[in-house]
Amino acid sequence: MNTKRIIVIGGSAAGPKAASKARRMDECAEITIYQRASDLSMASCGYPYYIGGFFDDRSQLLCSPAGVVRDSKFFWNAKKITTKVLTEVTAIDRQNKRIEFTRIVNGEKGTAEYDKLIIATGSTPRKPPIPGIELDGVTTLQSLPDADYLRKVRDEGKIKKAVVIGGGLIGIETCEALHLAGIEITIIELLPQLLTFLDKKMAKLVEKYIQTKTNVILENGVASFIGENNTLTAVRLENGTEIPCELAVIAIGVVPNTNLAKKANLSIGITGGIVVNDYMQTSDPDIYAVGDCIEIPNLITGNPVHAPFGDLANLQGRVAGENIISGNVTRFPGTIQTGICKVFDYGVGATGLSKKNCLKSGMINIETVVNASLDKPGFMQGKLLVTKLIVEKSNGLILGAQVLGPGDVSKQVAIWAMAIKGKLTVNDMVNADLPYAPPYSLAIDHSIATAHIMQNKLNGRFSGISSEQLKEKLKNKEPLVLLDVRNPDEYEQMRLGIGEILIPLGQLRNRLKEFPQDKNAEIITWCKISLRGYEAALILQANGYERVKVLEGGIMAWPYKREK
Amino acid sequence: MNTKRIIVIGGSAAGPKAASKARRMDECAEITIYQRASDLSMASCGYPYYIGGFFDDRSQLLCSPAGVVRDSKFFWNAKKITTKVLTEVTAIDRQNKRIEFTRIVNGEKGTAEYDKLIIATGSTPRKPPIPGIELDGVTTLQSLPDADYLRKVRDEGKIKKAVVIGGGLIGIETCEALHLAGIEITIIELLPQLLTFLDKKMAKLVEKYIQTKTNVILENGVASFIGENNTLTAVRLENGTEIPCELAVIAIGVVPNTNLAKKANLSIGITGGIVVNDYMQTSDPDIYAVGDCIEIPNLITGNPVHAPFGDLANLQGRVAGENIISGNVTRFPGTIQTGICKVFDYGVGATGLSKKNCLKSGMINIETVVNASLDKPGFMQGKLLVTKLIVEKSNGLILGAQVLGPGDVSKQVAIWAMAIKGKLTVNDMVNADLPYAPPYSLAIDHSIATAHIMQNKLNGRFSGISSEQLKEKLKNKEPLVLLDVRNPDEYEQMRLGIGEILIPLGQLRNRLKEFPQDKNAEIITWCKISLRGYEAALILQANGYERVKVLEGGIMAWPYKREK
Fold first, then answer.
1. The CATH fold of domain B5-123+255-326
2. Predicted ipTM > 0.90
3. What's the pTM value of the predicted model, to 2 decimals?
4. Identical fold at A5-122+255-326 and A138-252?
5. A339 and B435 in contact by Cβ < 8 A?
6. Is B423 an interface residue toward A (CB < 8 Å)?
7. Model confidence at A1, in pLDDT bands (50, 70, 90)?
8. What is the CATH number of domain B339-458?
9. CATH of segment(s) A463-557
10. Nearest-CA distance B190 → chain A (Å)
11. What is the pLDDT of residues A67-112, one digit of tens each?
């Protein structure tokens, strides 16, 4: 057997993973990574935490778990992989199975031949053509130099005000990082909500929380960056508002780097990513592609998506690394777009489809519920979790979940991701056997309780109303009986104040005469999380009221201003 | 429709849950709970944390999430459920569908008729007939009075030495609670390992950790309790050792309370629990049973098990509560025996089958791996997790997982529990789409990395050796080349010291001449967690060595004494 020549373009995440896996599959192959940047295997997902001061030793972003910097020497010694850093691949000559490259430091050009090629060119932050974008103080957060720059901002402590443009995942992470550096932040988002992987109401809950830390401006874009002496002094919004600031971070998403692939006439998909099959093979059987530069199928809808997540990049790299050595023996099936981010003391995550994405994909036969409850018992300092669950109405198939709050969000999202992976239904989840002990969960885990509520709803035991729908009804001045069934002391501490009456659940059966004679009156019930609200609804229904609705998630999931 | 008369025997966990669910299903039913104890709905899983001082307000053990004590008044007002506390049901008259009861305070007797009966009589701690067991200072931890007694021990601070008899879940939790009260603890366990839901080697790792906090004595039982003035002064072990102590907590398991069921001639199963079908119905169609007094199927083996877990009790209660009202419409399928406990700063959990239980059930065609790695990146203060995964060899079906360590064990166990629920295989898990961000996980989650190792093992890419097997080989003085491939500074800090040579992975390819000429020599490789150990094995194999084995889990999963 001839020695296989393998070239990998891109040395950040998916590329090195593919190269390492290939080496483990074949001790003899000649493996070379070309990397435009100077560093290799950067933990780019860690940049916000380096900037935010969660750790100070920059080299940790570049280290193996054993604490060795993953430089060219490391790759050669530990893995017998040649790495050519500061070297840009400029063309792929598919005919001759050859790449052309240029060494960035001296402009030196060269070519190299491959038997198998892996494209792992990643993505680049979207940068809109806004006047003033070249000013000092305007940056993105994608590369290690970006991270170095923002860390320096932290360390110097001179900058007092910053604007983060884009309320997506990176924007929000950047926002926390800079806030921790003592900088006053304003987030600007063009859309009517932050974090578009969430449905709007869930995003509102995050927004409400973030507003306790930073300013949030929605439905507004940046018209221009204003500067003096080539240095940013303010951001002017499309509505004319000027926000003085010394720093602006643009985080409005990334675009796959497909220039090389396009020039080589490889298929590019509708999302703009390189098309690959589930072996990670492009339209050229000798060329594979992995990571942020490709598109992959959403496993629920079957539609291609651009899913630039570090975990998927690594998994794809592993699959490609094996297939280029052994032939197409292993598959990366696609994604359910599971994601999570830390938002100060909240976790915010999602998996599967949002309601929005269901509707967009033409899936209209769905049901949703919102559950707000603790992650573990109050006596173990349980913290709030709010979950929105989305299922197929006809069979209860779990389609998606969004989870947020100060509680253990990560575990909840993992549970739902596994439920989707296993194609489980609500009926499967209601008796799930999860690890229970008071330091870790409630006796009925938050996820199982969410499934219980969904089961009740699917069985027609109650009608729910979302805070959004209720807000709409209030706006329209629809006649409603609004019923809070908590205790007076709870009511004193916190209440919606939207015209509700307070009848504690324990008194409800004796105070039914206070309700309208008309059994067709619309009644909305709630409590803190709406468990008692549900019980109240059942009592009212049992007494003939036909239009009783439970406010889903109760007061804890109310994203609007409360009276108290 | 006549008003349904429902009687529930037992008011701790499963009973009230069944009663509450029945009420939600039927506002008109007459529902009565008979409870021998004075309290209702006690959060008994919380007792160890009350004793350990995690919280001080005892009423939290009895409160609803809204902070209201769940007493008789609460049950009546909020749920229209009658509760008769301090009332013991003495007989079930199936013929006449009637129970007989005695009020404990005054001996008053009575009867009550039912349409449907739910038995939720729970379990009682096993108490061996050991001389001196009646001494002051000898207790169990099951009831609220037990918890009160042990909390008083904490608050008074007089007792300095205690013995915990039984190294199971309750024993270990008690041990932590008393340790936190400043008491010196010795755990006595009859078997050769603690926590029998773990395989022996995993249990050894827990034991090694617990020994940093308390004394552990295995394979020894208590012969007698020794006292003066009716008060415990020491425990005498079967081997004659006397351990001075002022407190002994017996925690050697529980037995289902089935006296009533037996007297009523209901079927009792081989585990000693009441037999129910998956509607929670006993051999009498009008009598249901739930909670610690029943046996249920293990969903993997199909064998009945006694699984006295609070979460299952609640789920069963919910199912029974619905079925007694609506006919048999919903099922509780069984358990995969998922469990977790907090052991000081470690979490220790398991789901599905252990290797031991596989073998016991005649499932011999299995493969196991041990993976030790961090739960999240080092720069985010990642903490160690050790997982043992057990799968069916022929198809990779996931059968069980055991997870322990200071890392996020709860999420890992939940992931594997869901994998088993979804009947997933290793091939499904290798590309699982789990929530990744540095504050929550590694780019390749610990669970996925475990699946990767298993996949490599199933594909024959490496042979693993467990620490137990290696220890055995060392004992037998088998000729071995022992190879640690870490860096010299790592070796200086920590090492096994069992005769190994140190060749850092990066030097291995250049130092192959230091290995025996005989390509059939047995070589064992490792590193801290054995990722590099695996890479080293591949290099050696590629160079013709045929008997290379990787020490699974590396140094971090070595449960024996290290040189350093």
1. FAD/NAD(P)-binding domain (3.50.50)
2. yes
3. 0.97
4. yes
5. yes
6. yes
7. low
8. 3.50.50.60
9. 3.40.250.10
10. 25
11. 889 999 999 999 999 999 999 999 999 999 999 999 999 999 999 9
